[in-house]
Specification:
Layout: H1 3-33, H2 35-38, H3 45-77, H4 79-97, H5 103-106, H6 109-139, H7 145-171, H8 175-180, H9 185-188, H10 190-201, H11 208-212, H12 219-226, H13 228-238, H14 242-259, H15 263-291, H16 293-316, H17 320-334, H18 336-339, H19 342-347, H20 355-371, H21 373-380, H22 387-406, H23 423-433
InterPro entries: MFS (IPR011701), MFS_dom (IPR020846), MFS_trans_sf (IPR036259), Sugar_transporter_CS (IPR005829)
Domain Major facilitator superfamily (MFS) profile: 9-413
Protein name: Na+/melibiose symporter
């Protein structure tokens, strides 16, 4: 596998993921800041916030179903078809959110349409990362798989930066302008996302590993017959995404709506943390290419479990300096040790013929659980001083994820052709090849 092809694929994955997840995360920011007033004004403030965050979680409901469908397409017909479809669906659904009527003009139809479009976003996201990660991994040299696959996730962080940054001037608008037309602008910008993304993704080449593989008629059936334990392990490990959803959605809502901190500084916490993550993700992924996936991933889980306590405490006392420092350390550095590693860690558990299905189904079920974490912790921590319960919940999720990976096998030294095979199977294959 040539390094130039690996770089080209990693760059395409980075740009595509940045554009795709810009769409996905502007919804989360809007849910935290304005949707409780625009789509659920009839409810009291606390209930309205809970309902708005619930619509964010609804997007994750479609992801397991989408993972089965798009996983089948990707393993049966190719990764490229999945990547083009997901970007197009995400862009159309996101643009449509910006065109929705509000509760004041359409009544209950407005939140119903909002939920439907969020489901379409979730369907799109279900195949995005698994497709991009599979393609990057299969194009990468054996000894640098984590480094090259990590660009999909650093692209995701770039999408979060764009999503948060575009809300900075919007959030600074007068309240009336924000609630009437201001919140719509970031969603309308997705029209640009669709055009740019489709141009990029149509130029990606299918991987040689996929071309050499005889596709199964039902890849999912093969997956659950041969890799069911790995799918379960990925499901449990992927719940670590709760750290991301709690940081980006719940903590923002808690700071602004419960504690009363200013919107703009809290948005900047997310921007700066993600800027740091852009550098940290490939560096930590490269480290795992040298010392192994498990040590880096487990260290990230432990650090996140610890740092969530002082981070939420700093928000509760309104200490902006601590909020910035701890937020950047928690999300920009420590969570990057997880984010930079999981594309290779999960992908290396599966063989080529079921890799996209295995990654998509495992991660999307885990992400679906994580998607409702902001709603769960909003119920736990509805008051000013309830942050401890939220931190304990987050730390428990970190422990579950760490346990799932600690009990799995290390794969960073295995050749790509032998991934997803038991050691005795790999040895037999090597013997036959001599």
């Amino acid at each position: 596998m040539t390094t130039s092809m690996a770089r080209k694929t990693a760059l395409a994955a980075w740009i595509g993921s940045a554009l795709e997840y810009y769409d996905f995360f502007i919804y989360g920011t809007a849910a935290a800041l304005v949707f409780n007033k625009v789509f659920f004004p009839a409810a009291d403030p606390a209930t309205g916030t809970l309902l708005a965050l619930g619509t964010f979680g609804v997007g994750y409901l479609a992801r397991p179903l989408g993972a089965f469908i798009l996983g089948h397409v990707g393993d049966r017909f190719g990764r490229k078809k999945v990547l083009v479809f997901t970007l197009l669906l995400m862009g159309v659904a996101t643009f449509a959110v910006g065109c929705l009527p509000t509760y004041a003009t359409a009544g209950v139809l407005a939140p119903v349409l909002l939920v439907f479009l969020r489901l379409l976003q979730g369907l799109s996201a279900s195949g995005e990362q698994a497709g991009a990660n599979s393609m990057s991994l299969e194009h990468a040299p054996d000894h640098r798989r984590a480094y090259f696959t990590s660009f999909t996730l650093s692209g995701t962080q770039a999408g979060q930066i764009l999503a948060t940054a575009i809300f900075l001037p919007v959030a600074a608008l007068p309240q009336e302008d924000l609630l009437t037309w201001g919140w719509r602008v970031p969603f309308w910008c997705s029209a640009i996302v669709v055009v740019v993304g489709l141009i990029i993704r149509r130029k990606i080449d299918e991987t040689a590993a996929f071309k050499r593989t005889k596709a199964a008629k039902l890849p999912v059936a093969v997956l659950f017959r041969t890799h069911w334990a790995d799918v379960l392990r990925v499901v449990l490990a992927a719940t670590i995404a709760s750290v991301s959803t709690i940081f980006t959605v719940y903590a923002l809502s808690y700071a602004v709506n419960t504690i009363g901190l200013a919107r703009t500084p809290m948005l900047w916490v997310g921007v700066l943390a993600n800027v740091v993550a852009l550098a940290a993700i490939p560096l930590l992924a490269g480290l795992s290419d040298r010392i192994g996936r498990k040590p880096v991933f487990l260290a990230g889980c432990g650090a996140c479990a610890i740092l969530i306590f002082p981070y939420l405490w700093s928000i509760s006392i309104g200490a902006y300096g601590l909020v910035f420092a701890l937020g950047i350390l928690l999300f920009g550095v420590c969570y990057s040790a997880i984010n930079g590693i999981w594309p290779s860690l999960y992908g290396e558990m599966f063989s080529t013929e079921v890799r996209l299905s295995g990654m998509a189904i495992g991660t999307q079920i885990g992400f679906a659980i994580a998607g409702f974490a902001p709603s769960v912790v909003a119920a736990i921590g509805a008051g000013r001083d309830d942050w401890i319960g939220v931190a304990i919940f987050t730390a428990a999720v970190c422990a579950v994820s760490a346990t799932a990976i600690a009990t799995g096998r290390e794969t960073y030294k295995r050749p790509t052709a032998e991934l997803g095979r038991l050691p005795q199977e790999a040895a037999a294959g090597a013997s036959l090849g001599r």
